[in-house]
Design a protein that fits this description.
By secondary structure, this protein is α/β, with parallel strands linked by helices. It is 56% helix and 10% strand. Strands 9-16-15-10-14-11-13-12 form an 8-stranded mixed sheet, sandwiched between helices. Strands 6-7-3-8 form a 4-stranded antiparallel sheet. A two-stranded antiparallel sheet has the order 1-2. The two termini are 63 Å apart.
Length: 779
């Protein structure tokens, strides 16, 4: 960029942001609330113009999205969804006194809702899925399944010798279906719905039904196994007690000598009563100790994760549910994410914490059983000690009768314990033999008739939406990353330069308002020196007309130029140039000359574009003598009359100095001291001097002429000149200390920029004026 201040003291620094509203938006402090509203409105209008400008690209992007979605659905395998529902019932532990023979207390303290959630997690467990996959793999099935996507079916119908993809193997079909199993509760009920999505409709229903069957079998096997273990252990304990009872019976017979001594059952002594009480407590303690040992033995033999006392623990269930949820999240993240991803590491850490909590719960359950067993043993030991002490106290009094009585009681207690254990063993055997399941099949899965995916209507709408969004986003990206100057005001906004005027495109006027075209406006083809309209005869009817939007644009521009000029009586000398070729500087210069001459000013146009002259064609004058001849010294500027080298045009007050004849090096001619003499002579003879120069970015001609002028005018072509090019041109003038009085936006097309109403007010005024004139003429 150039200096912050130019040589004329114009501050080109952007306005500082010194205020912020409640929404956080920044704005100049001098703005009012209406200014901010207008700014937001203008931004919204600009967004609409961007969308309208790129509407065909957005439309093409939307069509591409639709085609892409159709192609994807065309080649995608269809998914069929089968559904089945189960009724999860709670186990009735009071049936046949099953609660008394279950050492783990299964089902105690758990609600129906918790039971349903637990069963859902079990249905989603990897163990059940692996069991189901193994069962399906063991059943008779075909090795492959044909592809049922639309492309394969179409190829099959047409019998084309091509293949879209390989047939689906049975292993891939099983694995993919296992990944698309969903279990969810149905409202506030005991019902659970299982959905299985598969590439094959029949296999989807088959997988669902196999899954429910395996779940019921696993539930029955678990309960039957636990009951069988309990029954076997109780039977073994009953056999041991039977041996003890028989041994006690032999001792009793030996003590009585076989004479059937009968002991008194109602002793009146305090010692006998106390001994009897201790004996009863000891029997209960022994029964309690045996029960605790059975529970401890079961806990030691069975897996801790299968013990109902552990699984029914609310804390352990919460851990199980949290562990299943965390593993599900990890399965969703890996892949695509790797194990080094922070989210995966965090989830793995939480899984380890949950597993540690589950291990702690299992250890706590084991420690509780051990503590209860130790307590029972200690209590039994204490009772046994107390019993023996009391026996010793009363033995001296009772003698042989007491001993016999004690043996009799031992026999009775052991026989009672034997009967109790034998009854429990039978009940446990009944429970294991009874095939009662808590899972009831409500609706079996049936073969779905239609695939649920891909949904071509939905995918088409999604493709349309995504394609449109991509097109809109790309349109904004393209527009924001484009630095082309297009509409009025952008030069002032981005370059902080005065915009002297806006010249509309003559093609826009011909197209939008054909009745208002002005054939007298001088127009050159881009890159050519031929006149587009009236090249032979320069009719001035258009300039004399009161209503021509192009002519009015030039009149307004000339007025802006005159206002920015100096206030001295010397002639104003302006260099007209542009950053690039084809920006229309020659057309603008010639028409500015016409417009200035209409203000009763003596105007001369100097054709300084010696490389590609065109002003003589634009104003229809000969090019035999001109600037080249003057700079070579063929004409004495001090003595020659102005008419010798200055050609008068058909337009009053407008003259032109063409480029002249010759082929010398342009740089040598422009550095001739005669150029300063020529400019000085034109100062004295004319009111306004316009110098048409070549594009300045790559040629120094305009910068050389500008050193002899009072200012430069930069022509910007709408939709062609970029901000970078205009900025470089401005910086060149700043470095040369040349005053850049402003810019002219040329070839502005409101229709192309979606500002079709830009000149509506002008043409409404024109129509009203013509209507008024016709009415006045008619009256």
């Amino acid at each position: 960029m150039g200096n912050t201040f130019n040589t004329n003291g114009i501050d080109r620094r952007p306005v500082g942001i010194v205020a912020r509203d409640e929404s956080g938006e920044t704005f100049p402090k001098s703005w009012t609330a209406n200014d901010r509203v207008e700014q937001r409105t203008s931004l919204f209008a600009e967004y609409l113009r961007i969308l309208s400008r790129h509407r065909w690209m957005i439309f093409a992007s939307a069509i591409a999205g639709i085609l892409l979605s159709f192609l994807l659905s065309f080649a995608s395998l269809p998914y069929y969804r089968a559904r089945t529902s189960l009724d999860i019932q709670s186990l009735n532990s009071d049936f046949m006194n099953m609660r008394a023979v279950a050492p783990t207390g299964e089902g105690n303290g758990s609600s129906a809702e918790t039971n349903v959630q637990t069963q859902i997690k079990l249905l989603q467990s990897d163990t059940l899925l692996q069991r189901t996959k193994a069962r399906l793999a063991a059943e008779p099935h075909s090795a492959t399944t044909p592809r049922l996507d639309l492309a394969s079916r179409l190829i099959g119908m047409l019998h084309l010798p091509i293949s879209v993809g390989k047939p689906i193997s049975s292993d891939d079909l099983i694995e993919d279906t296992a990944k698309h199993v969903t279990v969810k509760p149905l409202g506030i009920t005991r019902l659970v719905e299982i959905t299985c999505d598969s590439w094959n409709a029949e296999f989807a229903a088959r997988f669902c039904n196999t899954l429910t069957t395996q779940f019921k079998e696993a539930d029955l096997e678990t309960r039957s196994s636990e009951s069988e273990k309990t029954s076997r252990w109780l039977a073994q304990q009953a056999a041991d007690i039977k041996l003890l009872a028989e041994e006690s019976q032999h001792k009793l017979e030996a003590a009585t000598g076989g004479n059937g001594l009968v002991l008194s059952q109602e002793s009146t002594t305090v010692g006998e009563d106390k001994l009897r009480e201790l004996q009863a407590e000891l029997v209960r303690a022994q029964a309690d100790r045996i029960q605790k040992e059975s529970q401890s033995e079961i806990a030691a033999v069975a897996l801790s994760t299968t013990l109902p006392s552990v699984m029914d623990s609310p804390e352990y269930r919460r851990y199980q549910e949290k562990l299943a949820d965390l593993k599900g999240k990890v399965a969703q993240l890996v892949p695509p994410l790797t194990e080094e991803n922070p989210k995966v590491i965090h989830l793995r850490s939480e899984i380890r914490e949950v597993e540690a909590g589950m291990e702690a719960a299992r250890n706590a359950n084991s420690n509780r059983l051990k503590n209860e067993l130790e307590t029972a043993r200690h209590r039994e030991m204490l009772l046994m000690t107390a019993y023996h002490m009391q026996e010793a106290n009363v033995s001296s009094d009772l003698g042989k009768a007491a001993q016999v009585s004690l043996l009799r009681r031992e026999v009775e207690s052991e026989q009672q314990l034997y009967q109790t254990l034998l009854q429990r063993a039978k009940e446990a055997g009944f429970a294991s033999a009874m095939q009662a399941s808590t899972v009831r099949l409500v609706d079996a899965a049936h073969k779905p008739k239609m695939p649920f995916s891909p949904r071509r209507g939905t995918s088409t709408m999604a493709g349309l939406l995504l394609g449109s969004l991509f097109g809109i986003g790309f349109a904004f990206y393209k527009d924001r990353n484009s630095d082309i100057l297009r509409v009025p005001g952008e030069v002032e906004r981005y370059l902080n330069l005065n915009e002297l005027g806006v010249i509309p495109s003559s093609r826009y006027e011909d197209k939008a308002f054909p009745a208002s075209r002005s054939d007298s406006i001088i127009t050159l083809q881009s890159g050519s020196s031929t006149i587009v309209r009236n090249a032979d005869v320069l009719d001035m009817a258009g300039w004399s007309s009161h209503f021509s939007v192009v002519a009015e644009a030039y009149r307004s521009t000339t007025f802006s130029i005159l206002l920015t000029g100096n206030s001295s009586n010397r002639a104003r000398v302006y260099v007209v140039t542009s950053p690039n070729a084809g920006d229309g500087k020659t057309t603008v210069t010639s028409n500015l000359g016409v417009a200035l001459s209409k203000s009763n000013l003596r105007v001369v146009i100097l054709d300084g574009d010696l490389r590609k002259p065109g002003m003589h064609n634009a104003l229809h004058v000969p090019n035999d003598v001109g600037l080249r001849n003057l700079l070579r010294g063929e004409i004495d500027l001090a003595r020659a009359t102005i008419g010798t080298f200055c050609k008068a045009t058909r337009i009053p007050n407008l003259s032109v100095i063409p480029s002249g004849s010759g082929s010398e090096e342009v740089v040598q001619l422009l550095h001739s001291p005669r150029l300063a003499e020529l400019i000085d002579r034109l100062h004295r003879e004319f009111d306004v001097v316009l110098i048409d120069t070549p594009p300045m970015l790559h040629m120094a001609d305009a910068r050389i002429f500008a050193c002899y002028s009072q200012g430069a005018i930069l022509v910007i072509r709408s939709g062609s000149t970029s901000r970078e090019q205009a900025t470089k041109a401005r910086d060149f003038f700043d470095k040369d200390r040349v005053r850049l009085i402003g810019t002219i936006l040329n070839a502005f097309d409101p229709g192309r920029e979606r500002l079709s109403k830009y000149y509506d007010s002008y043409y409404r005024y024109k129509q009203e004026a013509e209507t008024f004139q016709k009415a006045a003429t008619g009256s």
